[in-house]
Amino acid sequence: MRSIRARLFFILLLTTGLMWLSATLWIFFSTRAEVEQVLDARLMEAAKMVSSLVVNQEIDPDRPAQTKAKIPVLDHPHYDRQLSCQIWSLDGTLIGKSESAPETTLSAHATGLSETVINGETWRVYAVENAELGVRVLVGDNLRIRDRLVNDVVKGLLVPALLIIPLLASLIWLSVGRGLAPLRKLAGDLTARDASDLHPIAETATPSEISPVLRALNGLFGRVAGARQREQNFIAFAAHELRTPLAGLKTQAQVALASSNAEIREKALGQIVAGVDRTGRLVRQLLDIASVEASETARGAVEVNPGDVLASLRNELLGHTRSAATVVIDPGLDQLQVRINADLLRLAARNLMENALHHSPAGGTVHCRLVRNDGTVTITIDDDGPGIPPEELPHVTERFFRGRFKAAVGSGLGLSIAELALEHAGAGLALQNRAEGGLSARIVLPNDLIA
């Protein structure tokens, strides 16, 4: 059942019906017990009253078979002849009986309550014996009539219930619909919204049951708005950054085609190669950012040896970059095992090492070291470059930010990619200028990532 309204309606109707049925059963059994006690008390009262008439000589015990004797009994207009009375002498002679009483004795007991089956019907009988007058008074109640009385009481409860149930069902249906009105209003507000409207929904006078839904929707709107803003910024920055190198490539190609001087053509072609390298690196970095942002959590954490990752990157980058610097890797990194997403760690380390090589002077050295502190393990990538001016340090991880000492082939994305990848991997990035010159880029690994 997909409808909340229908589900609530049937649940409420079922529970109400079960409660009503339980109350009816309870009333049935309690009423039966109460009726039994009341009718038994009435039997005793009637028997004692008839016995007192005999004592007062209003009924002559010496005249046998007074079948037409007017013996007073307590009748109800809806239950005529419910009580039956007999007066027997102690020698077994029927002295008198009420009109509805059977001919046979109602009970063989001398005194007290008893039950007797006469002609297939069960009677509840109370006997009073008067030894001085030699008579026994029997007042009986047919249990069939008692059952009819109890059934009439229960019927009096069920008939109104059956008549009220349709009205109750209608009221429940309308009440549930009224209770779900805030949901319909919320759905209407969302339907009327423009696709670009990602502002939070106001929670004014919102029922407490709907508030969590609104908070979740507002959180979703915020995340979608953030993703849209990042996408717009990404497209704008990418278009801006790609426009310059593509225009430069076109210009250098035109120079090479128009010039007959071999030296000029060779220089133009060299500029084209450098431009292609820079553009290729920019495109790769843009794709890296898009790939990392596509996933909000780190995937596939495995045990990784950072020494192997850095050595592989060193061989790859020294073969493709024009840097004359060298890369030295701390042997201690070969002894470290980290449980982390291997692709994210490699992506961050690649951009940091590439950034260090581009900023290191000819003959410089990039040192990759392992530093253990309380609570963390840090992999540092230090270069001999100019470092970063202190006022630029808070901004260098912003996308497309290129500071005062920018590299010729840089695009301002390397540090942004490294920080984003490490954040998704559960690690962190710290940047600090070295006292002896250059920049120290630090991959900070919490102890819970150390295998």
Walk me through what this model shows:
With 451 residues, the protein is α+β, with helices and mostly antiparallel strands. It folds into three domains: 4-165, Beta-Lactamase; 235-292; 299-449, Heat Shock Protein 90. The protein is 50% helix and 17% strand. The protein is built from eight helices and twelve strands. It has helices at residues 4-55, 143-179, 181-192, 211-258, 262-293, 306-320, 342-359, 414-425, and strands at residues 83-89, 94-97, 112-118, 121-130, 135-142, 301-304, 326-329, 338-341, 365-373, 376-382, 428-433, 439-446. The strands form three sheets. A five-stranded antiparallel beta sheet has the order 2-1-5-4-3. Strands 7-9-10-12-11 form a five-stranded mixed beta sheet. Strands 6-8 form a two-stranded antiparallel ribbon. Strand 9 and strand 10 (376-382) form a beta hairpin. Helix 4 packs antiparallel against helix 5 (262-293). Residues 65-81 have low confidence and may be disordered.
Percent of residues in beta strands? 15-25%
Q: In total, how many domains does the architecture comprise?
A: 3
Estimate the helix proportion, in percent: 40-55%
Determine the structural class based on helices, strands and strand pairing. alpha+beta
SSE order: HEEEEEHHHHEHEEHEEHEE
Major sheet: size, sense and barrel closure? 5 strands, antiparallel
Strand order of the largest sheet: 2-1-5-4-3
Under CATH, the homologous superfamily of the largest domain reads PAS domain
Count of helices?
8
Radius of gyration: 51 Å
Can you name the CATH architecture of the largest domain? 2-Layer Sandwich
pLDDT under 50 segments (min length 5)?
A: 65-81
Termini distance? 49 Å
Topology, number of strands: 12
CATH class of the largest domain: Alpha Beta
- The shape, in one word, is rod-shaped
